[in-house]
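Quick start: read one record
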Amino acid sequence: MKNAFHASETSTDPGPDTGAPQDADPQETAEWLEALEGVLREEGPERARYLLDTLTEHGSYLGLPGHPHPWSAYQNTVRVENQGAYPGDLAMEETLTSIMRWNALAMVVRANKAYGELGGHVASYASVAEIFEVGFNHFFRADSGEGRGDLVFFQPHSAPGVYSRAYLEGRLTESQLKQYRQEVDGGGLCSYPHPWLMPEFWQFPTGSMGIGPLSAIYQARFMRYLEHRGIARTAGRRVWGVFGDGEMDEPESLAGLSLAARENLDNLTFIINCNLQRLDGPVRGNGQIIQELESTFTGAGWNVIKVIWGSDWDALFARDTHHALLRRFAATVDGQYQTLGANDGAYNHEHFFNLDPELRALVAHMTPDEINALKRGGHDFRKLHAALSAARAHNGQPTVILAKTKKGYGMGGAGESRMTAHQQKKLDVDALKAFRDRFRLPLSDEDVAQMRFYKPAEDSPEMKYLHARRQALGGYLPQRRVLSEALAVPPVATHARFALEAEGKEMSTTMSLVRQFSNLLKDPVVGPRVVPIVADEARTFGMANLFRQVGIYSPQGQLYEPEDAGSMLYYKEARDGQLLEEGITEAGALSSWVAAATSYSVHGVAMLPFYIYYSIFGFQRVGDLIWAAADQRARGFLIGATAGRTTLGGEGLQHQDGSSHVVAATIPNCRAYDPAFAGEAAVIVDHGARQMLQDQQDVFYYLTVYNENTAQPSIPESAHEGILRGMYRHATHGQGDAAVRLLGSGSILREVLAAAELLWNDWQVPTETWSVTSFSELARDAREAERLSIQGTATQSYLDQCLPGDTPIVAASDYVRAYPQLIAAYVQGRYTALGTDGFGRSDTRSALRRFFEVDRHHVVLAALHARVRAGALEAAALGRAMQQYGIDPNLAAPWSR
């Protein structure tokens, strides 16, 4: 077989209409090509590649327009002579793969036959089975006594195949397989990889497509971070990610490619299952997704290995001296490949090989059955092993393997390469029998009809081989472990005394929190485990002192003299730097946070990450990643450092946050707080650190803090419990029992306190003011108390303890009304919620609070209205109050403006 460097002359475009220029001098072209072949033959590929690169570079110097195509020929990257001998028992592995295919199929079909509504996917695993098995048998190393193993991100729709293997390994039971997607009563298997639901099995959630690829990149990067900082030994460990070609349409799938190449993450390998089909149809019906992905990854700086054709094609390539196959491949779009894949050998002969006299002659000796047996490379163990071996041996770059497969491989007319393959969940008996016969499974007709699982005897050669291969690789995968040791958090006074005993000093809660974890960095035990993370806003959040204190992580160190080298807070990059300054990528920074927040399980080393960001760019922009973090039991702090909709003066609509706390309240293991004072934030951070590092609880914390400098009160120890439970009484105004209870959170508490003074001074209305640090924690406690009461166990909620009786309540926050309304159903007094519903806009803080009707005057008006409804005040007082405070009753509501 001639070398494929010829391909650029014969297939210059992946589409059917190449538009390639005609060869004006074929003899000269042949001489150049023969010279290149001679160099390759005599001096090897490195010399040949050097000459090609040098010619390209010189052409650029000469002003030659255009660039070579960033894709190669539509053929395998690893040449036949370089692929080496297969190290395993091919027949045995094919048998085991067939068994796993059947059990995965039976699992899904049984569930849908029994219940008809459970769903499930068969076709994806059918296409990826050989990829998984080559990995499981020869590459994916598990944790063992010799150290931690590899990290594997599994294509989510292929989960049934992973379950099927775990069943043969004895890690899952037949009863569990029968309860696929039936988890409510216990023992069932979840639909996709979910560590929350199967905490000893799955490591990484990949069910929300696009998150897996991005997370894999940042996990590989975090392994280097741990190694370079001397915290954990990660050299030799690898991250493998098996993803779908359709999944690459997600922006997150490609978002971290340049980072992986820039930081030379050669511990990372993507394997993209290119079955050419999405959920509804071809990934690129009118193009070629493999060539497109090669272009994308090559341009990003990755090493690309293509596995397109199986071993049965090798003889055809060897005889195809004029590259007729490559020309035809280049002119065939993926939509047509799918049609060819869905039909038999006779159809392929007529509609592919018969289109070209050279191709027709090339297969003249082959029967339709032999043509039908030609495999795509992703179903060939030899080709896959050669590709994964080449990826593992490659240095200096991450590697992507583009493996061409058939969706629904083995399902025949019921699903192979069919548009409906992804939705295929039920097969009739004849289709099941055809599947059995194709893979030569030892199942009777009755076994097939009943969809019985098949498992060879434990002492059979198949089972011995299965276990031996995994033992050679350290054990079984996937498997999630929690082996990190607890860390002692220093007393809160050592890192937050300045906040707890503020005595009126002016500071913002953002700066206070940064100062607190900067102090934590100095602790000899916890300090090295703190991971400050920021998405290019360190100076905005007062973190510039960390540049010098702990350095910015860079695997190359600092190769330049920074412009501000003469300043005290110069920009310092270091190989052992502790701060992760991710650039302008919230998704990337959050992925770094997830890697650090799950380190206690993934690497056996507990870390304490603080990711600080504009709060609107958290749950709204990358909320799916936060949900995935919750799924994999992350532990760490998310800091929304520009809290609410009115504290970030001047920034405007898309920067101001009014909703993140509402979303945070929906995540069961997220503890979300909106503290008003530096001391409150200090108490929460201290408690959270103890929960996560000492008690090793699977929770994470979301705190919103603000950059408005205000006088900070000292916080008595008696208030700590209330701060953590969600509220405490901060002040009373006037004489006698409170006529109205005022609740305020975050920066709006100060407006509420000012309103309390006005209510007494102007209207002689006594009040008590409560600092609400977390409406969501209050609601969570109240829900639980209500549930227990419904079930017959009388329980008093913390809200009932704090707010007994029917005294009217006015609650105000810097978030939409839905946030304070979280507790409305659980209090006895008439409840009025004020919030910042509507679009944000640029202005001063005071103007914004007036606009959104959460300033002190609107709080007073709401309190007076509550008094009117209680019959304690005449209605005319409302008009007098609006006139007195300059409130225009004719203005439209802020959410309609």
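The first strand starts at residue 151 and ends at 153.
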